[in-house]
Amino acid sequence: MSLNQLIENCKIDDTKAQGELYKLFSSKLFSVCLKYSRNHAEAEDNLQDAFLTIFKKIGQYKNKGSFEGWLKRITINTVLQRYRNEKVFDIINENIIEDVELEVDEDIVSIDYLLQIIQELPDRYRLVFNLYVLDGYSHKDIAEMLGINIGTSKSNLARARQSLKETIENYKAIQSLQSL
Q1: A Pfam family this protein belongs to (predicted)?
Q2: What confidence tens digit (pLDDT) does each residue in 139-178 have?
Q3: Domain count, the chain
């Protein structure tokens, strides 16, 4: 069955088609959920919520643009809605700190470790970092998506980079001590 036919069948609540669509896209969308969630279990919950929203709103998809992109936007918005409901962004000091350059030496710091330390960032820093650095959204878009102002987005990105830089520097120091 073609993707277009699968989408059309999902629009009429065909549970078999919904299962196929889930199988087809769940691993990619789980990666998106994992990037924005605090841990694996929360990512699984977010994935389920995202698919419930996808199946509820699939009738709104008009076959314009990338279907996968549409799914990803719904997934990101579903996860971000959870954080908006938890008031993650309520207590924020908006003093903009100087932006930090973050350089990663792939020979010392693995991608898995980097993803782990990104996931350990405080929610407001992790969300802005992922939206800006990994998904390419502008500070204006991030501000609208998260219900914050542009200065807060910039400040949280700078703080995320600073935190990651410190964690990586500590990691490198430990690695060099262990190699002595």
Answers
A1: Sigma70_r4_2
A2: 999 999 988 999 999 999 999 999 999 999 998 888 888 8
A3: 2
102 Cβ neighbours under 8 A, 6+ residues apart: 161, 164, 165, 168
Whose structure tokens read 């078999």? 16
Residue type, 3: L
Q: Are residues 10 and 81 both part of a single domain? A: yes
- Whole-number Å distance between alpha carbons of 63 and 70: 10
| Residue 55 Cα distances to 6, 13, 22, 152, 158, angstroms | 12, 8, 10, 33, 37
**8 A C-beta contact, residue 129 and residue 118:** yes
Please tell me whether residues 18 and 80 are part of one structural domain: yes
pLDDT digits (tens, 9 = 90+) for 63-81: 888 999 999 999 999 999 8
Query: Residue 10: which domain range?
Result: 3-85
pLDDT at 106: 57
| CA–CA gap between residue 47 and residue 54 (Å, rounded) | 10
CA distance 108 to 31: 24
